[in-house]
């Protein structure tokens, strides 16, 4: 007897969240999608998104991003102007887009006393609204769940078992010889037998792969690929459990007290319980800070890792299964949030050079700071009043504690 078809009403909340991002991506223009070349080579791309779930369990997609590249260490001088993104992996773009959306929502909230936000509210401390702009006069509403969906396991520690399984020989790789000058300061593309450590991202994952076979050069992004200073998505998400999902700029305005991820959703094929517990859980590498509370809205808030039965149509697995020849990673990244849609290549808007200020993404440090200054003028009528950087200093202190006690080896010069 044929089992009944699964309907949307029968889906789990995790399936609903995944589907909502699949549908949001499908609704984007064709220029945002991975392509198929004339010789039949299909492209794949990771997708990540952040949704807010209300008490009625209605799913609201807030931000999504696609991408798998980051800036080589040799080009970090481009970061000085704040107009070039250094990391455009899907997870990082989704987080940046979420922060961009929060700032726009905050602008609406402070611009009109009649505006009612479903996500943000004016904050009160002991019944009194904070008087200083830097004292975070806004917070996320209580009762909201922030869920993040990733079509691929986050790069770094949470995906090490998957990397080893993808080898023709799944035996853990030997530890790199410290005399080998190619070995990075932090374990990045090799030494996969070492688990629970901070890793750098490979510069690129855009090598072609043949159906049914993943080459060693692919999973380690080639030994001759230029190194980066960007930490893996696993490491960055682990840190967010202590600092919240807010960026340093956003946290000058919005309190982190209700801004922590509740759930990370992965396809079942991308979930390894031991890897996720080691990477993110209170019994894993974050155990030294598992019970810590720093005040001012900062504490260790571990997220759940749940799975979905749905798979992204442009995932590596789907594309490989439906390719007659080779497949490769897509070189464009897409950002979407309410009121914003961008296509990025090499950390800037498509069609622009990295040295062109007009190529700055709305998610770049420079543009986010411009948006923040607009908000500052709306809240503080006197431009001579300095911005209180206290929240940023507190957040920075929390980061340093976590790096020193739990995520040891985090290079202070990294991004």
What does this structure look like?
Helix 2 (90-111) runs parallel beside helix 8. A hairpin with a 2-residue loop joins strand 16 and strand 17. The protein has one domain. The chain has helices at 13-26, 90-111, 160-165, 216-219, 233-243, 273-280, 316-321, 365-379, 390-405, and strands at 42-44, 47-53, 59-66, 68-70, 87-89, 120-122, 138-140, 145-150, 209-210, 261-267, 293-295, 298-299, 304-308, 326-329, 333-337, 340-345, 348-349. The termini are far apart. The longest helix is centred in the first third of the chain and has 22 residues, at 90-111. It has 415 residues and is of the alpha+beta class. Helix content is 25%, strand content 17%. It comes from Lepraria neglecta. InterPro entries: A_deamin (IPR002466), Tad1 (IPR042935). Residues 63-383 form the A to I editase domain. This is A to I editase domain-containing protein.
